[in-house]
């Protein structure tokens, strides 16, 4: 990112208001080999979860390099859940969390929901294979999110961006903001997998 930022900042002051992708900027600068940007020499570059890519393609790319995807696109045999809207959302969350997601996230989230489906729910992405459910988390939450239950469902369904919800006052976050951003990435993956 630093090399791409340097290339952009080296342009004239009239170059503004553009959406840029690091890799594209570096390619414009003549960079053709990106191994130097890998986490470890020989390790494939990780996908950017902020850029759209079909979940099937991400799974395929990850498996080609020996990685175990933390999510899978739903199969056509997926049975729709039968509980209320919040319970259905947490059932879908439970279906995509596993030990790999827990290792990548390392956070416990509490959701204080108001409105028609008010209640307290938790998402444990810190211990074992993770867990989720109604009530207080098993240990103190790293992040507490407060919002209306209808907005919560919209957020996890991809109809409301968490950042916009936060900036618009629909979502209040207390605790570790870095972990809140990790959850946003998980929501994005779930949405791509058709939550």
Automatic annotation (TrEMBL):
Matching Pfam families: SCP2
UniProt keyword terms in alphabetical order: NADP, Oxidoreductase
One example GO MF annotation: oxidoreductase activity
GO cellular component terms, semicolon-separated: mitochondrion
Keyword Oxidoreductase: yes
Tagged with keyword Iron: no
Domain (SCP2): residue spans on this chain: 98-187
Domain of life where this protein originates: Eukaryota
Stretches assigned to coiled coil: none
Family that this chain belongs to: Belongs to the short-chain dehydrogenases/reductases (SDR) family.
Protein name: SCP2 domain-containing protein
Source organism of this protein record: Eleginops maclovinus
């Amino acid at each position: 990112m630093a090399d791409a930022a340097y290339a952009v900042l080296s342009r004239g002051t009239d170059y503004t208001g553009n959406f840029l992708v690091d890799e594209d900027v570096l390619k414009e600068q003549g960079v053709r080999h990106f191994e130097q940007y890998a986490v470890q020499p020989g390790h494939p570059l990780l996908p950017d979860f902020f850029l759209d890519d079909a979940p099937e393609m991400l799974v395929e790319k990850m498996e080609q390099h020996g990685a175990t995807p933390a999510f899978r696109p739903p199969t056509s045999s997926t049975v729709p859940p039968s509980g209320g809207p919040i319970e259905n959302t947490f059932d879908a969350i439970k279906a995509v969390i596993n030990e790999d997601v827990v290792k990548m996230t390392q956070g416990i989230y509490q959701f204080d929901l108001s409105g028609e489906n008010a209640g307290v729910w938790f998402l444990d992405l810190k211990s074992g294979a993770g867990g989720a459910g109604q009530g207080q988390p098993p240990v103190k939450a790293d992040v507490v999110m407060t919002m209306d239950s209808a907005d919560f469902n919209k957020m996890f369904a991809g109809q409301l961006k968490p950042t916009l919800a936060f900036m618009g006052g629909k979502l209040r976050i207390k605790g570790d903001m870095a972990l809140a951003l990790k959850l946003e990435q998980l929501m994005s993956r779930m949405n791509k997998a058709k939550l």
